[in-house]
C-alpha cells in the first residue's frame, strides 16, 4: 500500500471538510485505491481563534508554512485558503519544492495559472484543481478526460450557487433582490460582502478555467464580459414568467472557427432548456461537442462536503498518477493570431421600456430597431396606465449583434416617446 503524506493550508469550511472526508473515508480509500493518506500538517493563521481547530488533533496544526514546505515527507499540499495573498506565494513555493498542489481556489488559479504551470513543469510537480469550478460536479475531469474525442463548441453553465439561490427565490416567491439577498446572507448562502458573487466575479474566475480547458486556449479574466444580477428586478422576472422564460446568471463560452466569445451575465432562458430548471444552490453545466452533441452535468456547486469531495478526488488522482499532465497553453497571456475574443456576439435580446401611449410610438421604435439591423421577434404591451398615458412595451428580438443592439438603444433613448429603458437582457434558447 502506498503511503501519501499531505498538508492542508487553511481549515475553514473547505479545509475542515477535506479532513473530515479523508478521516471518515480512510478505510474505503485504502481498500479501493490502495492508498494510505495521512494529514501531517494543517496550516492556520491563529491557533487560538480558528473556528474549526477542534475537528482535528492539536498536534497537526501550525502557523508556520516552513513546517510544511521544508518537510520532505509531505508530497501533496492542499490549498484551501481562498484569495490570492498568501495563497499564490504558498502554491509557488510548494511547486518549487517539488510538491504536488491540489487547490480549490478559483481566483488564484484564474489569475496566476501560467505562473503555476511553469513552476510545476520545472520540478515535475502536479497541479490539480477539480474543486475550483462546479464544487462537487466533476466538470474539469469530464473536460480533461471524458471529452477528449470532442471539439467543444459551446459551454453554458450556472456555476454560482449564491446567485442561483437568489434568482430562484425571486422567481418562486415574487420577492425583490434586496430582500432575498438579505435572507441569503442570514442563511449563510451569501457573504456579508456579496460582491464577488452578485457582481459576477466568482463566475468569471470559474469560466476562465473551464473555457481555457474546453477550448484549448488560455482565456484570461480580462477577456470575459461581466454583468451581475444586482439590476434584475421582480418586474423582469414576472414578465419573463409570462413569456415562458426563466432568468439565470449564465457563464457562456462559444467557439466558432477562430472566434471565441466568453461572457457572464443574467440571461433569459426558455423554460424548455434544461438549465432553466436548475434551482437553489445547485449548479448545472451544459456542453456541446462535435461527437457527443449535448450533455449536462448537475449537482451541488458549493458547500463543505461537495467541495471536499472534489478536493479528495484530486488527492487520490494525483497520488496514483504515473505522470502529471499540464495544459501547456500557447497563449499564456496574449491570444494567438488564430484566436479572436469576440465582443460583438450574436444573441437574442429582451428589451423592456416605458413609453408614451400614443399613436405612432410603436412604429418609431420599430423603425429605429430596423435601421440598426435588429429584427423584432415579438412585442407585447403590459401595464397600460391610461391616467398617465404611458405603457410598458416588451420586445424580444431575433438573433442580433451586440453592437447593433447597443447602437439601437442609444438612439431609442433619444426618442421623446421613450420615457425609460427599464431592462435589457440577453436571451438564449
Structure description:
The chain is α/β, with parallel strands linked by helices and 429 residues long. The chain has 3 domains: 2-132, Rossmann fold; 139-300, Dihydrodipicolinate Reductase, domain 2; 346-428, Alpha-Beta Plaits (2-Layer Sandwich). The protein is built from 14 helices and 18 strands. The chain has helices at residues 13-24, 26-33, 66-69, 87-96, 106-123, 139-146, 161-173, 177-187, 195-198, 201-215, 234-243, 304-320, 361-371, 402-412; strands spanning 2-9, 35-43, 61-62, 76-79, 100-103, 127-128, 152-158, 225-226, 245-256, 259-270, 282-289, 293-300, 340-341, 346-356, 376-385, 390-397, 400-401, 418-428. Strands 7, 8, 9, 10, 11, 12, 13, 14, 15, 16, 17 and 18 form a 12-stranded mixed β-sheet that branches. The protein has a 6-stranded parallel β-sheet with strand order 3-2-1-4-5-6, with helices on both faces. Helix 1 crosses helix 12. The longest helix is centred in the N-terminal third of the chain and has 18 residues, at 106-123. It is elongated and about 80 Å long.
Search tags:
single chain, 429 residues, Rossmann fold, Dihydrodipicolinate Reductase, domain 2, Alpha-Beta Plaits, twelve-stranded mixed sheet, 14 helices
